[in-house]
Amino acid sequence: MARAAAEGHRVVLVVATKGELGEVAEGFLDHGETLGERRVAETQASAAVLGVARVEFLGYHDSGMIGEASNDDPACFWRADVNSAAAQLAGILRDEAADVLTIYDSHGNYGHPDHIQVHRVGRVAGELAGVGRILEATMNRDELLRQMIEGAQQLAEAMDDVADLPKPEDFEHFGTPASEVTHGIDVAAFAGVKRASMRCHASQIAEDSFFLKMPEDVFSASFGTEWYIEHGAPRGADEPYRTELFR
């Protein structure tokens, strides 16, 4: 988003829920403040850092993690009628005359029900609004595992608490195999902006978290490329990743 904004594109962020069911430490919220209110404020602050021109919330309730009782709440996004939610999103897309829509991959990167629903709703909305290109944000599983194996020692030396380091097996079901990924977008020049935007989400990413404790060069190497799937774009062993979201 930061790169697109810096290159002159109008970037709009649409958020399905307010993340009301997240967990925060005792005393984190101000007196009388709800987690949903805090996360709306965090989202607005993060969007400003990234250069986002407009932020819209669809108004659905957080569904919680997969398998939790909250998944059965009729007001949660997981239970939302896909066509109804898609019509709401399509209205925003038409209003913006959107050229590109990015959504999650089919399993929401790691199986979160609201991420999966973003995929379902997003695909229908993009078709309703006639958006030319729909790209699914994912993680390149093979590249992620390679980095974890090759960078484990460097991370261990650079960080104080190695017990917090993720292990390769933690990522075996994350993202998508490299053979299915079509786009690798270089955002290394915006790694600092990315981390600044992450800091805005303090209710989700604590200052002492793995992501914010990583040395800058390690963070840039790990998160300096963002990965997407565009259906219909050929991808094979000899086909290079596409490097642009916009034609």
Classify the helix fraction into a percent range: 25-40%
Give me the CATH fold name: Rossmann fold
Number of helical segments?
9
- Name the shape in a single word: globular
The CATH architecture: 3-Layer(aba) Sandwich
Number of strands: 6
Strand content: 5-15%
Described by its quaternary structure, the protein is single chain
The CATH homologous superfamily is called LmbE-like
In this structure, how is the largest beta sheet organized?
4 strands, mixed
Enumerate the spans where pLDDT stays under 50 for 5 or more consecutive residues.
Answer: none
Supply Rg: 18 Å
* Tally of structural domains: 1
Structural class label: alpha/beta
The residue-averaged pLDDT reads 91
Q: Look at the structure and give the CATH class.
A: Alpha Beta
| H-E order | HEHEHEHHEHEHHHE
Termini gap: 16 Å
Strand order of the largest sheet: 3-4-6-5
Your description of this structure?
The protein has a single domain, classed as Rossmann fold (3-Layer(aba) Sandwich). Helix content is 39%, strand content 13%. It contains nine helices and six strands. It has helices at residues 2-6, 35-50, 82-96, 108-111, 113-129, 141-158, 191-200, 210-213, 216-223; strands at residues 12-17, 54-60, 100-104, 133-138, 183-186, 225-229. The strands form two sheets. The protein has a four-stranded mixed beta sheet with strand order 3-4-6-5. α2 packs antiparallel against α7 (191-200) and α3 (82-96) crosses α5 (113-129). The longest helix has 18 residues, at 141-158. The two termini are 16 Å apart. The model has no long low-confidence stretch (mean pLDDT 91).
